[in-house]
Amino acid sequence: MLGAIEAGGTKFVCAVSDEDLTIVEKITIPTTTPAETFAEVFKFFDRFELQGIGIGSFGPIDVNPQSKTYGYITSTPKRLWRDTDFVGAFEERYQVPVGWNTDVNAAALGEVTLGAAKDKASCVYITVGTGVGGGAVINGETLTGYGHPEMGHIHLPRHEKDTYEGFCDYHGDCLEGLAAGPAIEARYGTKAEELPADHEAWEIEAHYLAHAAMSYTMTLSPDCIIFGGGVMQQPHLIHLLREKFVEILNNYVDLPPIEEYLIATGLEDESGILGSLLLAKQALN
Ligand code: ADP
Ligand code: ZN
Predict the structure, then answer these.
(1) Which residues sit with Cβ closer than 5 angstroms to ligand 2, an ion?
(2) How far apart are the first and last CA of the chain?
(3) In this structure, which residue's CA is closest to atom 15 in ligand 1?
(4) 3-class SS shares of the chain: helix, strand, coil, % to 5
(5) Closest protein CA for atom 20 of ligand 1
(6) 24, 18 in Cβ contact below 8 A?
(7) Partner of 53 for a Cys bridge, out of 3, 145, 213, 254, CB 3.0 to 4.6 A?
(8) What is the pTM of this model?
(9) Tens digit of pLDDT per residue, the chain (285 long)?
């Protein structure tokens, strides 16, 4: 059996599957303190004979195998989770290989293996929700280096109508600070899901996401860019964003048809947990 955790800032999704990734059981646990949350995960996993575990985690996290703190959640704004030895805790308890990556790299791996990028070798996965995060699979491998990408924290040209200062604790008006759900809410005093489709908020949102997609295209040359997360549940947003993207790309490079290049998730909200099961399988092999 394979075990997987999609570790998010508000909830942990845990699943157990067979070798073919057919999920046999799945639970959701609130993210409180490491001790409390891990204890709940242990209670769930203890009932199975696990051969490998995969973890896709919120971060920043240490993914550098050369580092003394490999497997830790490091400088997260969630104070209670700072400097938490995540991988160590699960290796110690289960004595099995543990795969470890960011939640969004895991989601990209899920999408490229089983979802919207299934016939492709590369994809970028962006989630636009409480924050903005991005991960990638390039030529079949999740993208890590000394650390891991933090695609939500890039700076982009301002929309001319936008005077909001941005909410990122570290950078103010980075992509996350300007385009995550809380930024939309702060600008207009209304939750993103309650704004009408013709509200100017969506044009501003599309502007930032299109510029971000442009940067990922120019730097990574993926086969496609997949958009997930709560804010993307606005069905018109992907169309607006494609239009903007085509405009700013200005035919500079050759790309697949836009409806096949900037796309919605193929696995809905399962890309992260399926990707984490794939991390377990990779660790095992
Ligand atoms: P998280 O990022 O915590 O995993 P979500 O991806 O659901 O959670 O993102 C939550 C954010 O998405 C909130 O800021 C919320 O206002 C926004 N959101 C949720 N549903 C929608 C919707 N249908 N349309 C636009 N925004 C939404
Ligand atoms: Zn930032």
Answers:
(1) 153, 168, 170-171, 174
(2) 13
(3) 181
(4) 40, 20, 40
(5) 230
(6) yes
(7) 3
(8) 0.97
(9) 999 999 999 999 999 999 999 999 999 999 999 999 999 999 999 999 999 999 999 999 999 999 999 999 998 888 999 999 999 999 999 999 999 999 999 999 999 999 999 999 999 999 999 999 999 999 999 999 999 999 999 999 999 999 999 999 999 999 999 999 999 999 999 999 999 999 999 999 999 999 999 999 999 999 999 999 999 999 999 999 999 999 999 999 999 999 999 999 999 999 999 999 999 999 999
Please report which helix (H) or strand (E) contains residue 215, including its range: helix 200-220
**Residue 74's closest CA among 85, 66, 64, 65?**
85
Q: Which strands sit side by side in the sheet containing 123-128, from one edge to the other? A: 141-142, 132-138, 123-128, 225-228, 262-264
For ligand 1, is residue 231 a contact (CB within 6 Å)?
A: yes
CB atoms within 10 A of CB 229: 21
29 C-alpha to center of ligand 2: Å? 27
Tell me the C-alpha distance between 265 and 107, whole Å: 9
Rounded CA-CA distance 191/181 in Å is: 8
Tokens of 57: 């985690």
For ligand 1, atom 7: residue with the closest CA? 230
Select from 12, 13, 127, 130 the residue to mutate for testing ligand 1; criterion: most ligand atoms less than 8 Å from CB.
130
Ligand 1 pocket member 34 (CB < 6 A) = no
Q: What is the residue whose two structure tokens read 């009932």?
A: 47
**C-beta of 152 in contact with ligand 1 (< 6 A):** no
